[in-house]
Each structure stands twice: as C-alpha cells, then as structure tokens.
Amino acid sequence: MILTDKRTTLAAAAALGVLAATPAALAHHGWGSYDSTALTTLDGTVQSVSFGNPHTSIQLEAQGKTWFIVLAPPSRMTTRGLPDGTLRQGQTVSLDGYVHKNEPAELRAERIRVDGKSVELR
User: Fold this and answer.
1) Which of 9, 61, 66, 120 is the 20 to 30 A CA-CA neighbour of 103?
2) CB-count burial class (<10 Å; 0-12, 13-18, 19+) for 47
3) SS3 string of 89-110?
4) Cα separation, 39 vs 110, whole angstroms
5) Cα distances (Å, whole numbers) of residue 104 to 44, 51, 66, 72, 119
6) How much is the pLDDT for 21?
7) What is the pLDDT of residue 18?
8) Distance between CA 119 and CA 110 in Å, rounded?
9) d(CA 15, CA 32)
10) With a cut of 70, which residues of the chain have pLDDT below it?
C-alpha cells in the first residue's frame, strides 16, 4: 500500500522513531552490573559535572583515585533539589552507592550529601 495521506506518513515516521529509540532506552538501565550487595560510601571533591541525559554524572576525587559517579537523570536531580549548577567543581560531597562489578572506579549513587542536605537519587 502506498502511503499518500500526510497523517499516515507522520504516524509511520513517529512509530519508526520510537522503535529506533527503544534499544537505547532499554540498554542504559543495566543496574545489574553494579554490586548491590555492598553499599559503599565515598567522601571526596567534585572534579567535573555532566548534567545531561540519560543520567547526570560527576568525576569525584576520593580514596586516592578519580571515580566516575552515575547520579540520577536531570529531571529527578531537579525535582529533588539538585538542579543544574548546584554541583560544582571543587565542592566536597559524600555519596552512598554501589561499585560497578567490572569498573572498580565507577559508582552508581543512591544518595548524595551536599551543602548540608541529603538527597535520595533512586
């Protein structure tokens, strides 16, 4: 069948867009790669911040190395009181989270303590 109606063509294009985005959306939630049996606490200094999708992240200097910290998506960070610009280079933070099973300097944060407040991220 030839698609001649604009609405049909737009609907087909939208469906293809959803299908194309689905694998990426499903793939990024691989929380099974983090060791959820051992909660780890890090106290350190923020080296850099990336406030973006799918998750905000920071580089944290702690325990003599630089950690890659996976935080919450930007929308959740904002609604829980940590909007863009709140986390800054040089700031001291404390985090609780789970270390990646294959990347020993990567942590998925469950909560962050910054500027006197504790924020749950999950």
Assistant:
1) 120
2) middle
3) CCCEEEEEEEEECCCCCEEEEE
4) 9
5) 16, 23, 11, 20, 24
6) 47
7) 45
8) 9
9) 29
10) 1-29
Separation of alpha carbons 44 and 97, rounded Å? 14
Residues 6+ apart with CB under 8 A from 120: 80, 110, 111
Cα of 87 vs its chain's centroid, Å: 14
Residue 115 backbone dihedrals phi, psi, to 5 degrees: 50, 40
| CA atoms of 91 and 25, how far apart (whole Å) | 31
- On whether the pTM is more than 0.85, the answer is no
Buried b (16+ CB within 10 A) or exposed e, 56-87: bbbbbebeeeebebbbbebebbeeeebeeeeb
DSSP string, 2-25: ----HHHHHHHHHHHHHHHHHHHH
Tokens encoding 95:
């985090």
**Predicted local distance difference test score (pLDDT) of residue 9:** 53
